[in-house]
Amino acid sequence: MALAPRLDLRQSQNLVMTPQLQQAIKLLQLSNMELSAFVEQEMERNPLLEREDSDRSDGLDDQHSLDTQPPEPGIVDSPPGVTAEDTLDVDYDNTFNNDGAGDQVDGEAFAQWGNGAGGRHDFEGGESSLEMTLAGDISLRDHLLAQLNVDVTDPAERLIGLHLIEMLDGAGYLIGDLGELAERLGCPPERVLAVLGKVQRFDPTGVFARSLKECLALQLAEKNRLDPAMQALLNNLEMLARRDLPGLIRVCGIDAEDLAEMIGEIKALDPKPALVFDHVVAQAITPDVLMRRGPEGGWLVELNSDTLPRVLVNTRYYTKIAAGSQSKDDKTYISERFQSANWLVKSLHQRATTILKVATEIVRQQDGFFRLGIQHLRPLVLRDIATAISMHESTVSRVTSNKYIATPRGIYELKYFFTQSIGSADGGDAHSAEAVRHRIKSLIDGEGREVLSDDRLVELLKADGIDIARRTVAKYREAMGIPSSVQRRREKSLGM
Question: Can you give the pTM of this predicted structure?
């Protein structure tokens, strides 16, 4: 067969990663406060954009807003219907983009967005800059959250730890009533104290202390110097403040030389461990979504309209300046500004609708937690929400990052409601990891003289419809501080 060049004409469909699509994805990931800052910048660049409540002194009162009002609150008992095509839903995780014209993504969700949107829209070519590559000072909260996410695997305990972090003052001391926290979360106070013991081992040593004595004790315990004499000295810090050295020698049962050495060790400790971090003025978390009980039961979920920017496109002003423009460059600029303004207003409304849809479904699926407490936190993954509202998992992931919801049990980031699950042995609903841990503890507490091995626990759990492996049982048992069956049998034989 002879080889020769030839021309073929082929027709295909593909989606181009246009600047408008990049903007839609960027808006979806921003919190309400970040979104407000972004809109402020756009209003400075685009004369056709203005605030909805801005005063008009030129008599031009015709404005165009592509349905910019916040969507109606979602009702958990009857979640709003999902349209077959959601313009903010597409998977970009496996795409890349540069300034070329061939940037493409696969999917159907954005097919209609590329039509009729031509020209440049004043998007900055890249989001990276030298300032963004510089290392920033990490805050105490971020430092503790990173440790919480690694060291605390139980979702319920992680939620408690999140609340404890929010209860720290600038010096790292725990303020507030733990009993009130337990009541708000619907869990026993012992559970809160157990989590407190875990987070008190975080770095820097001494954080989460409730008093100066406890702060110093935590640091001495880490150095293995919290002996009875040192504990007696900590119990009588007021005597040290009065310089009552003879009294301390008598109370601690030591001589003057030992007392001087112990006082030197205490002076080397840090009474305010959190001050090693650079502190800025603390900014209270502003929730993006609000949740409250409905008048007829159930939950009402709505966007926080106080933080949502409301902008309009002034079509009358556009018509006036478009008619008065003479040069081709002026007409092109005005047309681009009008297209960019319309696109921004439309993107804002679609972003709000998507966030409300995701938040409403999360509240519906975690209804047990909001009504009964942390023990009823159910297993949940991104796929569950994405399937329920007919969106892609990547869309749900973007919506739940950096978005907070104000609930009767506190303010949470949306992503905190996603927990691990344990499969069901009989094909039924999955069990949350927290519920399985509670069941394991109940079985061991009621084992009596017959000590249950991990294999026996697996059999009992499978009889209850919980499909779990032996190594998982051992991991959960060790995480709860429960010794092995051999150790428990030895302790019972000794009458311990």
Answer: 0.57
